[in-house]
Amino acid sequence: MNVYEGLFTLDAKYQPVPLLAESADVQEGGKRYVIRLRKDVKFHNGKTLGAADVVASLKRWGVVSSPGKAVFKTVESVEAKDPLTVEIRLKEPSSGLLTILAHVDSAASIYPKEVIDKAGDAPLKEYIGTGPFKFVEHRPDRHIKLARFDGYAVRSEPPSGLAGQRTAYVDELLFLPVPDYATRQAGIATGEYHYIQQIKPDQYERIKGTAGSSRSSSSRTAGSPRC
């Protein structure tokens, strides 16, 4: 979610709302979706987002992702109608397509077409998205480092759930694999980590009451290796 974005995301009421999309027009009783993209959205490599990137990304999602495979059983076509318009035609009506496109798990993220063309159906080798942070490096068993993307195209709407305005308040993010729970809990208490994942419910109040750490130019996130 820090590096990649989809056409839609879920707001605070779990409703699908545009993210990289500007709007969606549902036609023919839910068999035809015309999605218009936002202008001047940049990828981390400086390329401007276009319909060709969306078409390539959605078709790859339909091949490699379980939700994508399920959706594409009823997809008749995905086409770029102009540089900023994508049309999805379905074999049968669907009222839930936008919600599926907005899901975070196995998300329908949008990548540059060139990156997809190089990778094919294999894992991507270049990690380029449109999110507020860009990929810097992955050091196995050490960290994943992201840096703020100064060219990020911020939406103007107020934040709501995963939707609306997204602001990168720190210069970089470090995601650290910390398999031992006690180490993670101690780290958040001392301020070594700013955020930890998978806390034990009976430890919530204790962790909530810790002083934590002061603001800094970077943020460290600790989680188990599967995070």
Characterise the protein shown here.
- This protein has 227 residues and is α+β, with helices and mostly antiparallel strands.
- The protein folds into 2 domains: 112 residues, Dipeptide-binding Protein, Domain 1 (Dipeptide-binding Protein, domain 1), CATH 3.90.76; 91 residues, 3-Layer(aba) Sandwich (D-Maltodextrin-Binding Protein, domain 2), CATH 3.40.190.10.
- 22% of the residues lie in helices and 26% in strands.
- The protein has 6 helices and 11 strands.
- The strands form 3 sheets. A 5-stranded mixed β-sheet has the order 7-8-9-11-10, with helices on one face. Strands 3-4-6-5 form a 4-stranded antiparallel β-sheet, covered by helices on one side.
- The longest helix has 14 residues.
- The two termini are 13 Å apart.
- The relative contact order is 0.15.
Describe the structure concisely for a colleague.
The protein has 227 residues and is α+β, with helices and mostly antiparallel strands. It has helices at residues 51-64, 66-72, 97-102, 113-119, 181-190, 204-208; strands spanning 8-10, 16-18, 21-27, 32-37, 75-82, 85-90, 133-139, 143-148, 172-177, 195-196, 218-223. The mean pLDDT is 91.
Number of strands: 11
Number of helices, where a helix is a run of at least 4 consecutive DSSP H or I residues:
6
CATH superfamily of the largest domain, please?
Dipeptide-binding Protein, Domain 1
What is the general shape?
globular
Kindly name the structural category: alpha+beta
Uncertain regions spanning at least 5 consecutive residues: none
Mean pLDDT: 91
**Largest sheet, if any?**
5 strands, mixed
> What strand order characterises the main sheet?
7-8-9-11-10
